[in-house]
């Protein structure tokens, strides 16, 4: 009786370079990026410097 050919075990898959992407450093799918947080902090500082009594 004929049998199916025995294939060698597959090689391990290469690592996904996108998985180490900076986009995944946001902290969740809906989190703001570090750059967006810095930008918001800078805007708040500018707003405070322009009118310190408005807070």
Molecular structure report:
With 55 residues, this protein is mainly α. It has one helix and no strands. The protein has one helix at residues 34-50. The longest helix is centred in the C-terminal third of the chain and has 17 residues, at 34-50. The chain starts with 33 loop residues before the first helix and ends in a 5-residue tail after the last helix. The relative contact order is 0.08.
Number of helices: 1
What is the distance, rounded to the nearest whole angstrom, between the alpha carbons of the first and last residues?
86 Å
Runs with pLDDT <50, length 5+? none
Sheet-strand content, in percent, reads: under 5%
Helix content: 25-40%
Q: What would you report as the Rg, rounded to the nearest angstrom?
A: 26 Å
**Shape summary:** rod-shaped
- Series of H and E elements: H
Secondary structure class reads: mainly alpha
Q: Major β-sheet, in short?
A: none
**Count the strands?**
0
Rounded average pLDDT: 83
């Amino acid at each position: 009786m004929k049998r199916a050919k025995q294939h060698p075990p597959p090689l391990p898959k290469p690592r996904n370079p996108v998985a180490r992407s900076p986009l995944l450093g946001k902290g969740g799918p809906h989190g703001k990026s570090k750059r967006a947080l810095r930008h918001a902090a800078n805007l708040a500082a500018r707003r405070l410097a322009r009118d310190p009594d408005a807070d």
